[in-house]
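Practice problem: predict the structure.
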Amino acid sequence: MKTNYIMLDLLVYMGLPYIIWTYGRDIIGDYYAMLLSTLPAIVYTIFRFIKDRQFNLVGVFIISSLLLSSILDLLAGSAIQMLWNSVWLSYCFTFIYIISMIIQKPLAIYFAIEFMHLQGYPREDCKDLYFIKGNVKWFQLVTAIFVIRGLVMNSIMVWLIMKHGADAFMHLIVVRKVLGYAFSGLIFAGFLYAGNKAILFTKKNNIEWLKPVQTVESK
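Answer:
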């Protein structure tokens, strides 16, 4: 099943955009071909959002960024401006991650809270536990990976746009997807590490670890 999802992701996020961009730009122009090539990813992401019932902070964050990106694409007016808008938007999200670290409320904690809530743990209890001072630093590290991902990917995007202009579009799709998979692995490992550190911290300080809602109700 996971392999099927990966193949479908590659088809929607890379295959279809390549076909639309390659064969459509000579007919409808660079801007409209680029705009149309983003449509499969938008429809697919919304479908997965509804299918997986990701009505939580993470899901809302993803959909909100997708809608904002789509609005900027429609307002761009040209292919090259559309690419630059994508860069500036990505830098803005990276800046949000940095701000969350500065104010000691790393977004990675909120993502972890929502994940734990989906597993049946009370959201407020997860929040209280993860925001214990000894645990926050580990989620700061995870958020730092998000920041590094943004800086690396955006820097490559800027270089490709300056070198290839609108032709950088397909390069960007491939680079984003490849680096996206690589950083997703690092982020997943970071969450596992931070979660494990949180468990060890609670044991060391004799803090009771969380229990799923269903376990509490069954007693």
